[in-house]
Amino acid sequence: MKFSCTQENLHQGLQIVSHGAIKNVNLPILSNVLVRVADKTIKLTTTNLEIAVTATVRGKVDEDGEFTVPSKLFAEYVSLLSNERVDVALHNETVSVESAATKTKIKGIAATEFPLIPKVEHVGAYRVPVADFRRALGRVIFAVSANESRPELSGVLLRFQPNGPAGELILAATDSYRLAEARIALHEGAGQPERSIIVPSRTMAELSRILGAFKDAADAKATLEIVVADNQVLFLYETVELVSRTIEGKYPEYRAVIPENAKTTVLARREEVVKGVKTSALFARAGINDVQLAADAAGKRLLLRSTDSQTGENETILLGEVDGVDNMVTLNFRYLLEGVNAIDTEQVAIKFVDSATPCVLTPAGDKPNYLYIVMPIRQ
Q: Last residue of a domain, which of 233, 254, 275?
């Protein structure tokens, strides 16, 4: 194995894949990066047995081969090199890394011990706008359940609907106390079947990090490719491939819990709602985190109230538009605040039915592409 490339290209590739390596006493090779040189390409791969990340690095190939070296050590060393040519070669059980001013040898493990990476054919891809996907993912992933007693809730639902009037991808997440759903357009996928998969939240967090590494590049691709296979999903973007297992099981039919007809809708400035919730949260009961929202139709205002026997009480008044009757609901302020922060319009719509029915938050507008539901706290 022998190749040359710029420090910038090698550093970027290692930065992308290095998060996929993990420490494992029983399988020390999982902390290594596989360097594979074949067919005039240089590929770096890491895996934790659930996710595998591969980045292709541009460079000059002199000799094919493969080997593994400690991912963190290799990445940190390359990051300290000057931005110039780097020569990498395999000699027996070590990899030599040389630049104009430095040279080193890194011991590793033979590539034959590296886990096999599942092969997912690059066919039948769905394509989505990458900026919209990143934004939508950020608006739902925080609602994933941290409790893995129900595995299907520990991931993000991806529901592909390519053949409707407007093909779209739906992303959803819930922990049973709140639910977030975002919709984005599908650029490609017509003719393929509608299908749903549940992707582990760790995979989605890693994908978001990888996409973020390219967001400022002027020549970055506009679309993300998603290929769905049996128990696997493959994401392709730029020079990176991320393959992950999917979670078996059926996602809850959450649409049934979304109230269809609100009795009261409040439109208020999002920034004022955030500030008001944070203010009331100071006086919420510890462990319960309860804040009462009261819609005053006649006064065209939203009242936020909280009371704690130890600290005191608070009432914050927000002016806005109120359509419907007077209404009231008590919510967990943390869940409420996360939902409001996920909305990026100037105004947020808060929809009430009664004190025992979930409260719905959406961006202001006729056809919002995001909704967030919070279950009420029963008094």
A: 254
